[in-house]
Amino acid sequence: MNLVKEIKKGNQRAFDKAYEEYHSKLYQYIFRHTQSSYYAEETVQLTFIKLWEKREWLSDQFSISAQIFRIAKSTLIDLLRKEKIRSTQTLSDSYISVSKEDAKIIVKDELKHVLHAIDELPAQNKEVFKLSRFDNLSHKEIGAQLSISTKTVENHIAKALKYLRKNIPIFSLLLQIFSAFI
Prior knowledge:
By secondary structure, this protein is mainly alpha-helical. The chain has 2 domains: 3-89, Rna Polymerase Sigma Factor, Chain: A (Orthogonal Bundle); 98-180, Arc Repressor Mutant, subunit A (Orthogonal Bundle), CATH 1.10.10.10. It has 9 helices and no strands. Helix 6 crosses helix 8 (150-167). The radius of gyration is 26 Å and the shape is elongated.
């Protein structure tokens, strides 16, 4: 029995056979990569739902196994994206729910961390970054002042931002919050 063709026709028994054959394999595969029973269960369940709902679009050129695992991969990616958005929103909500005075204290404290991280930048990166962000000079003005090209200025700023984002996870959120109080 060709499972792909039978499932495309709407054969429930063929779908049940695919489910029985691949459910545990898929669960183990996802669990091994995520170390999360939640993600494994959700991914497997949603994969088989999508397989049945979109059965007309199955390809006769690929095995049912390949198509199930491809659906699972995109499903897992979607779940992880949604979780990242949800956790970011929760973090944002926790900052929004504090009073304005408490938020100012939090911002000041985090700003100290940012300023400390800026001080840890290599000398040239730090100087270029400060001229750009604190003195509001254009790349061309910074280049003229330091006798370097605008491309070099861009590279220094990019390296500084990359360093800050890497070393201060809250950096982006902090900038959003801080701009609300300026």
